[in-house]
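hiii, so i know i said id send this last week but things got crazy w the move. better late than never?? heres the sequnce for the chain we talked about at the cafe, plus the structure i predicted for it. fair warning i was half asleep when i ran it
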Amino acid sequence: MKALVTGASSGIGRDIARVLVTRGWDVILVARRADRLMDIKKELGKHARCVRCDVSHTDECKKLHEVLQNDDEIQMLVNCAGFGLCGNFTDTSLDDELKMVETNVVAVHILTKLFLQDFVKRNRGYILNVASIAGFFSGPLMATYYATKNYVVSLTGAVYEELKRKNSRVCISALCPGPVDTEFSDVAHVSFATAPLDSKTVAEQAVDGVMNGKLYIVPSAKIKGLKLAKRFLPDKLITHFCYNFQKRKK
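okay and structure toks below
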C-alpha cells in the first residue's frame, strides 16, 4: 500500500507520513522544498519516495497525477500542503492571498478530484484533506485562511455524502484541528493564544480517523466544544469572539 502525502516536508504532513510508515505503508512525499524532502526520506528509508512539486501551480498538480495515476498501489491521498496569513483584509498582500487560495483550495480540489476518480474506479482508497476548526467559522484578521478551510470542509462533506449514496468503499475525511505545534505560526506571523497540540498526536488521530471512515476528525475536547458551540450561538456573536481570539494572536 502507498500513500501520497503533500506538504510532507514539515509539520502535520511529515508526521502523518511517519505514522503511515510505522503502520506498514509506503509513502510518496510531495513538497516544494527538495532539501526538506531528502531529510525525511533519509529518516524513512526505503519506505519513502520523494517528488518535488509546488502544488500552488495548477499544471504541477495535474502533472503529479499524470505521473502517478497508473500506480494501483496508491490507496491514500493526504492533502496537507497549506499556509495561513494574519492581518486586516485591507492590509494583507493580495499576491500572498492568491497563493494561499491556490495552495489551500485549488490544489486540494484538483488532487481530490483526480485521485478520487481513480479510487472510485477501483472501489477502494482513502482521502484525507487537512482542514482546520477554522473551516466551520468566519475568521476576522485571518479572513482568507478561514475561507479556504471553509471550502475544504464543505467540499469534503459533500463528496462524503456522494460516496455514501453510491455505497462506495472509498473514504474521505477532513482533519479539523485547532492550533498545532508546527511552522504554521511562523509563516502566518501569529502566536497561538492557547497551547498548541502535538503534531505527532494529531497525525495519529488523523490516520485513525480516515481509516475508520470518520467525516470530520477533530482532535481534543476543547476544539470539539468550539465546533459544538456553533450549533447554539448566533453567527455574528461567534464572529465577534473569533475577532477577539485572532487579535490576541497578533
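btw Residues 32 and 53 are 5 Å apart (CA to CA). thought thatd interest u
miss u guys!!
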